[in-house]
Every structure is written in C-alpha cells, then in structure tokens.
Design goal:
Number of helices: 11
Structural class: alpha/beta
Distance between the termini: 74 Å
Largest sheet: 10 strands, mixed
Order of helices and strands: HEHEHEHEEHEHEHEHEEHHH
Shape: globular
Length: 324
C-alpha cells in the first residue's frame, strides 16, 4: 500500500513539474501582431514574409500578419495595444505622432524600426472614360481608397494639389485596391487612386485583363504643392512602363516612403533583434516581393522618417556604421 502511494505521489509530482515547465515555456513565448493592409496590396504579402522570417529567426516568437485597412488602421491598432508593429506611410505616421487629421482624438507615441520602400501614387483609369489628365477627374466617379488607409490620406492631398474638391467635384467612393479594380472593370467607377509598392498585384490584374486598356495619369508636378502644405514628405517619382502589362509610356507620379513602426513599449533588445533580422534576412523577404530590396541600411536616414527611430534600431545601425 505504501509503495503504491509513493508511486502515485511520484507520478503526481512528475506531472506537476511537467505542467509547470510547459507553463514556463508558454509564458516565454512572445506573440507579435503585424498590421499590414488589404490582400490586393503590397503590405500584406510583405507582412506575411516578415512574420515568417521573425517567427523562424527569433527564439520563442510567433509573429502573424493581420489584414487591415492600411496605415491609419495599423497606427490605431498600435495605439490600442492590439498590434506590436505595423506598416505605415510616412505622412500618416506623422499625423499620428502629431495628433492631426485622422488622429485628432489623440497623439500616438511612435518609433520607427525600419524605413522600408517608397509607395507610388497610382491614378488609374481605363480607355473610354475620357480621363487623360488630373483635371479630367472632375465630374467622374472616383475611388479614393478604403477608410483607414493612407491611400485616402494621400489621395485627398493629391486631389487638393490638382485644384479638385474631393467632395464637390466628383462622385467619390471609398474602396480598397481590389474592390476598385473590380468596380472599374464593371464600369461602376471611372478612376481610382491607390498608393502602394510596384507592382501591386491588383493593378497588375487590371492591366492584364483582356479587352481593357489601363492608363496611369501623370501628376509628378503636384509634389511641390503637397510639400508646401504638409511638409517635405513627397517626391516626384516614376513607374516604368515595364512594370504593368500594356503600358505605352512611363508614368510620372508622386511617392512617399513606407515605415515599419512600433509604439513606445517595445524593449531595446526586441527592436534591435527585429531590425537586425529584417536587414540580414532581406533575401528571404525579397523572394516574396521585390520591394523588400529597399530594406537596406542605405535607406535608414531620418530624412525619410518623420518619426524618430527606436533606440534599439539606432544601436544596430551604429554597429553597421550608419550615421543618423
């Protein structure tokens, strides 16, 4: 009887130790939500690649890419503690940091981990709409991006710089890029604005659609007007005619840099390890989308980020000889 009791006690202690050990392992596991964007854009596939690289490279870390409305949503998710990091365009991040525009309810304490790649503004239409230049958008049905996206933020600024009233001069829709492509194919809208990396999958889909001739409208001349009002955030840029099927000429547009940002709670060690991993495992991310080529040390200059760099990121840059 005593031996049986001792045996049961030993088993019970062993089980308890196993449970406590497992509990300790679970407690050490870090979960990391990454705010991205819609499935038709570039943030989402890049975010998936980043989540995969971080989960594989960082001990006891499980990173996941979350579908969101885009930059504005991502910044609000960081503010509420629902995401640890997220993609944002520089203009939306500055608004959040300053408590402006869509963030008038309160400033978001942000820190940049990495300047990633430039987003190009696509002003997209198709043959048959009568749109050849920005002023032709007047009186048309135009999508300016989904609510919660930085496309909407920049689209309003582009239209304003072109002398157009977003509310009075057009019938405005608020669709994501995939929804915009479907709507223009169905002739429910005449044009849409989308800011993203190139190529953007949904735009490629439109350009490759049989019987449809896609056009991108030039507007690079508007960058100076936008900067005069909103600060030096925008630059004239170019989309090569080789990027999308059927383009007859390069498109002269505007661009703004993308950032990966976090709030004010990430430790220096975590920030350091994340940045180191993203820079040094860049090839794995490029395999998913070529915009990750810009995840380079050359681009880590404060001029491209209106948000201060995280001290952990700065530590890594300093080790690599990149001055701020």
């Amino acid at each position: 009887m005593l031996k049986t009791l001792q045996k049961r006690t030993t088993i019970a202690v062993t089980v308890m130790v196993s449970l406590l050990t497992a509990g300790g392992a679970i407690a050490q596991q870090k979960t990391m939500a990454i705010g991205t964007g819609g499935t038709g854009g570039v943030y989402f596939p890049l975010g998936g690649a980043i989540a995969n690289v971080l989960s594989k490279s960082l001990p006891n870390t499980q990173a996941t890419a979350e579908v969101t409305g885009g930059s504005v949503d991502n910044l609000k998710l960081i503010a509420s503690g629902q995401s640890e990091l997220g993609f944002s365009m520089a203009d939306a991040a500055l608004d959040a940091l300053s408590g402006q525009d869509k963030f008038k309810s309160g400033k978001v304490p942000l820190q940049t981990l990495l300047v990633v790649y430039p987003n190009r503004m696509h002003v997209v239409t198709i043959d048959g709409t009568g749109i050849d230049k920005m002023s032709d958008l007047k009186g048309k049905r135009v999508s300016t991006g989904s609510p919660g996206s930085a496309t909407e933020v920049m689209a309003f600024r582009v239209l304003e710089a072109a002398g157009l009233d977003k509310d009075k001069d057009m019938k405005r829709e608020r669709l994501g890029v995939s929804e915009s492509v479907n709507a223009i194919k169905d002739r429910k809208i005449d044009a849409f604005l989308w800011v993203g990396g190139v190529p953007t999958a949904a735009v490629t889909d439109l350009a490759a659609t049989p019987g449809v001739k896609m056009k991108l409208i030039d507007h690079s001349d508007l960058a100076d007007k936008m900067n005069a009002k909103y600060g030096k955030l925008y630059s004239p840029s170019n989309i090569s005619k080789s990027i999308y099927p059927g383009m007859d000429k390069d498109n002269a547009n505007t661009e703004v840099w993308n950032l990966i940002v976090t709030g004010d709670k990430m430790s220096n060690d975590d920030a350091y390890n994340i940045v180191k991993t993203l820079v040094e495992k860049k090839a794995d991310i490029v395999a998913v989308h070529k915009e990750a080529e810009s995840f380079s040390l050359d681009n880590q200059i404060q001029e491209r980020s209106p948000v201060p760099f995280h001290p952990g990121a700065l530590k890594y840059f300093k080790e690599k000889g990149v001055g701020k």
